[in-house]
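Input for the complex:
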Amino acid sequence: MRTAGLVAGGVALALLAQGAAAEVTKVQEKGLKPYEIVDGHTIPKPLTDKPGDPKRGAKLVVTRKKGNCLACHKIQQLNDFPFHGNIGPELTDVASNLTEGEMRLRLVNPKVVNPDTIMPAFYRTEGLHRVMKKFQGKPVLTDQEIEDIIAFLKTLKASQ
Ligand code: HEC
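Predicted:
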């Protein structure tokens, strides 16, 4: 898969060199707001007009029936909460490593970045497996909840 990624990267660079526009993929799933993936790695535009609330985001991150992010990720700023997993990379310094748009795509549909990832897609209604009937047609997180979590992730810098 690595080669495919490198080839795609080369194509993107070639397009940039020619001054061509970014490659934009429009996504519209049943029951969800439409959004745009740019160059296969970022959703630069927020899903809602209302800015995310980092406090609510932190709560969603630790809530098991919502984000449940700590099941897989360590976040030192949330050390008051027990049981941080290490299945995914530590997010203590994620704001230094990823742009807001890259975080948004990870949450909405991480399979775009890595088709083999075990991280759940939090803003999808289609292409999901093992979904209980009462949850079918609904994303795990609402558009505003996604923005709240991003607002929280943007505060995560190791130096602070
Ligand atoms: C079932 C485990 C699991 C859960 C739950 C999970 N993730 Fe992940 N996450 C991963 C794995 C594994 C990766 C590594 C990259 C990959 O697999 O593509 C990852 C990658 C990431 C990345 C990219 C980090 C980087 O430095 O590249 C971010 C950001 C992220 N997750 C945020 C979250 C947030 C926020 C939540 C909760 C809403 C969450 N994850 C829930 C497993 C999980």
